[in-house]
Please model this.
Amino acid sequence: MKFLEAQFVQKFIRMANDGWEQGWHERNGGNLSYRVKPEEVESVKECLNAGEWRPIGTTVPSLAKEYFLVTGSGKYFRNVIIDPEDSICLIELDDKGENYRIVWGLVNGGRPTSELPSHLMNHEVKFLKNEKYRVIYHAHTTNIIALTFVLPLEDRVFTRELWEMATECPVVFPDGVGVVPWMVPGGRDIAVATSELMKKYDLAIWAHHGMFAAGEDFDLTFGLMHTAEKSAEILVKMLSMRPDKLQTITAQNFRDLAVDFKVTLPEEFLYEK
Ligand code: 2HA
Ligand code: ZN
Model:
């Protein structure tokens, strides 16, 4: 099969373009990675050519020998759909989870996303909890970023405020959302902080920067990012009209919702205000 005809590649490209169309990927902002299934790697085996091994910048032993489809460092989401060979790549990890090599893509040179350590450490945390998780997505979601200037940078505040802005939120992300304070992007420290939060949540906010989402497939992961960002947009609109709410979804409303929708909503987020 031709590489670009494989369904997992098509879905990856569509998701990247959907993010671009949402306005979350100015210039080279954001990055996306997918842990490829063995049968999917097999289906494109004849298209692969191994490059040189390079250090990941962190160690992910549980992901040894796994393959990831990832966006390229400095590449624009806007261009993924028109020139995927130049914008994205398939990488293979070595048997220790310390090095990677490009086996397809980035035909004009370049490297995987600058956030590769964060992506792979998040993948590892998710993989160890639930092997079905395959997608990690980082986007510069406008309204979430705006809120990181006015809300306390606390998991419980962001979770509760986002839940309150749209009834579907506690059903879509019942575990809540974590917040990383401002940190230098691209390195191991922010990767460690984010992957720590990913042990508990599927969503992590990077203050004044954007958001990371994790999920089992492209639809769930994009949908998660989209839902949280839309809720943030409603909160920004609400706060633009007036600083307080005349009415809202109450802590007891959330408990009632949890029963009917069969989700567990941790009490730490249902505090009295
Ligand atoms: O430029 O979004 O966080 C890619 C990024 C870095
Ligand atoms: Zn970023």
Observations:
- The chain is about 40% helix and 15% strand.
